Amino acid sequence: MVKGFGINFLGILTSRVLGFLRDLLTASLLGATLYSDLFFIAFKLPNLFRRIFGEGAFTQAFLPALAHSPDPGRFSYHLLKLFLTILLLLSIGVTIGSSIVAKVVAIGFPPSAQQLASPLIGFNFWYLDLIFLTTFLGALLQ
């Protein structure tokens, strides 16, 4: 049991240190410029949803429902189909309306930054579909 705690502790510590180094490199490469603003604008929504889906909330809600389902395979398939359809439609909508989404997400930034961030938001939003698939398959493995 102590070994399990130690391995978990080392994994979390390594993750936090590498995240800190990533943030340092991002700040040193981009600086406090328009490019760093564009980077943070473009990743604001995908990072929000990654935190919701990828960091345990989905798994904690999905596993008890899966355990109580009379047909886990069918339940999993229907849930995957439903969520993936919603995410695909949402991704298509954000891609088409990326200029509107950029205005909402980048409130307070100059219009030039919003205009430059618009295609990046549309492209980066597709990251959510991949994060959901990864989270879903990870939950099934548990």
Explain the layout of strands and helices:
Layout: H1 2-30, H2 34-42, H3 44-54, H4 57-67, H5 72-96, H6 98-105, H7 111-124, H8 127-141
Helix pairs in contact: 2-7, 3-8, 4-8, 5-6, 5-7, 5-8, 6-7
Summary of the model, kept short:
The protein has helices spanning 2-30, 34-42, 44-54, 57-67, 72-96, 98-105, 111-124, 127-141. The protein is an all-alpha fold and 142 residues long.
- Please outline the major beta sheet: none
Q: Any idea what the shape is?
A: flat
Mean model confidence by pLDDT: 85
Please give the radius of gyration in angstroms.
19 Å
Number of beta-strand segments: 0
Oligomeric state, counting identical vs distinct chains: single chain
Number of helices: 8
The H-and-E topology, N to C, reads as HHHHHHHH
Strand content: under 5%
Ends distance: 19 Å
The percent range for helix content is over 70%
Overall structural class, as computed from helix and strand content, comes to mainly alpha
Low-confidence stretches: none
